[in-house]
């Protein structure tokens, strides 16, 4: 049985006693302790067996693009009893098409609306808090490192994350056969494919310390990033949201997590639960290592490599703004560990953003903000997809 082995380490204590962890406790009213640790720890060695079986039956028996096409066909059109479909595939779709009793479509709508209404702040939050902050957890990054994600380049990785997030957070996106549903199933199978490939080819995988590759507990932490950490970031940037919108974000990601095969007992319903779950998980994660620093710098330098902006001075300025937001949103200790560069006047942009958000929120109607946010986010996604559709981009 794994223990909360880093609970007395300086990085853990600093985060929860004086850093963003302390702010999360204040934000959520969480009561953190280790009394439920043994209930959740086994999930460090638990994986999505249904997804793994589909990969073995479909992806490992034919060419990758043929397998992808076959799965895509099932997602979009379903299949009949006459079709010669592997049992594992039937099992996957039986689970994902079984609508859980707790699902509330109004809450899904509220969650989607907050994601759209927050416009580019949503994308800043995902990138400069959720994603780069996640790199501070050394064991969580190991699958990225061993599958050589760095070689693929940050532009491509960011494009894929953005594609998934945008498509999962639109109106009715998660209905069966819809685009968000499709992304959830495909992402689930990519995780299984990566996990089985790591197990097969990477002999040095340290299961005892790192858990199973892409295990259920790490998946929980990742999806708490999309809900709890995302909300905390929006708040830090001066956005306000209603109780229903807040519940909606948790509900939306609980359902996405369900579609991705994360066990239901790991999917929090609200910010209090999410913070308590996150506290337990962080106690088994060491701080940044050299791989974390490489990942963080790859993400920061993405602004320079990305040809969406035409001129070099624009790209340099964009990188500077992301660095300012990273210092503002993350703990100084985390930024130092990830070796985020020091820059001058780093509070100017975030503070201006807060002021702008407060004025904008008071002057512009909610519906207008939702429409505008959806349009702007779709444009960013389109720009990214245009430059990465040639998969040899990097």
Can you offer a commentary on this structure?
The protein is mainly alpha-helical and 394 residues long. The chain folds into 2 domains: 31-46 and 104-173 and 188-388, no CATH class; 49-96, no CATH class. 67% of the residues lie in helices and 0% in strands. The chain contains 21 helices and no strands. It has helices at residues 10-17, 20-28, 37-40, 49-57, 64-77, 87-96, 105-117, 119-134, 142-146, 149-152, 154-168, 179-201, 207-210, 216-236, 243-259, 271-282, 290-305, 312-329, 332-337, 348-363, 366-388. Helix 4 packs antiparallel against helix 6. The mean pLDDT is 95.
Contiguous uncertain segments of 5+ residues:
none
What coarse outline follows from CA principal-axis ratios? globular
Largest sheet: none
The string of secondary-structure elements, in order, is HHHHHHHHHHHHHHHHHHHHH
Counting DSSP H or I runs of 4 or more residues, the number of helices is 21
Class from helix and strand fractions: mainly alpha
CA-atom Rg in angstroms = 20 Å
Helix content: 55-70%
């Amino acid at each position: 049985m794994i223990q909360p082995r880093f609970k007395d380490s300086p990085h853990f204590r600093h985060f929860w006693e004086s850093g963003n962890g302390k702010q999360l406790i204040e934000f959520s009213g969480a009561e953190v302790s280790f009394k439920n640790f043994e209930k959740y720890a086994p999930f460090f060695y638990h994986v999505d067996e249904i997804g793994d079986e589909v990969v073995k039956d479909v992806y490992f028996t034919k060419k990758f693009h043929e397998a992808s096409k076959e799965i895509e066909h099932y997602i979009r059109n379903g299949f009949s009893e006459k079709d010669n479909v592997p049992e594992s595939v039937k099992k996957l779709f039986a689970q994902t098409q079984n609508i859980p009793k707790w699902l509330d479509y109004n809450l899904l709508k509220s969650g989607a609306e907050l994601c759209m209404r927050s416009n580019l702040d949503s994308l800043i939050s995902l990138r400069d808090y959720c994603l780069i902050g996640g790199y501070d957890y050394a064991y969580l990054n190991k699958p990225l490192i061993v599958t050589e994600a760095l070689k693929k380049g940050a532009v491509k990785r960011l494009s894929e994350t953005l594609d998934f997030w945008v498509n999962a957070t639109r109106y009715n996106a998660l209905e069966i056969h819809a685009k968000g549903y499709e992304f959830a199933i495909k992402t689930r199978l990519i995780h299984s494919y990566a996990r089985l490939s790591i197990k097969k080819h990477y002999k040095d995988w340290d299961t005892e310390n790192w858990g199973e590759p892409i295990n259920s507990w790490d998946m929980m932490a990742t999806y708490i990033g999309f809900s709890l950490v995302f909300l905390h970031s929006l708040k830090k940037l001066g956005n306000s949201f209603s109780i229903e919108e807040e519940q909606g974000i948790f509900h939306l990601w609980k359902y996405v997590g369900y579609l991705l095969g994360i066990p239901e007992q790991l999917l929090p319903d609200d910010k209090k639960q999410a913070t308590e779950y996150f506290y337990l998980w962080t106690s088994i994660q060491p701080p940044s290592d050299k791989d974390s620093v490489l990942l963080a710098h790859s993400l920061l330098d993405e602004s320079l490599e990305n040809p969406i902006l035409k001129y070099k001075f624009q790209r340099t300025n964009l990188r500077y703004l992301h660095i300012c937001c990273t210092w503002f949103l993350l703990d100084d200790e985390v930024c130092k560990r990830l070796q985020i560069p020091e820059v001058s006047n780093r509070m100017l942009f975030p503070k201006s953003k807060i002021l702008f958000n407060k004025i904008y929120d008071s002057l512009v109607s909610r519906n207008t903000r939702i429409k505008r946010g959806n349009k702007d986010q779709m444009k960013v996604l389109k720009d990214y997809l245009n430059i990465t559709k040639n998969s040899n981009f990097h």
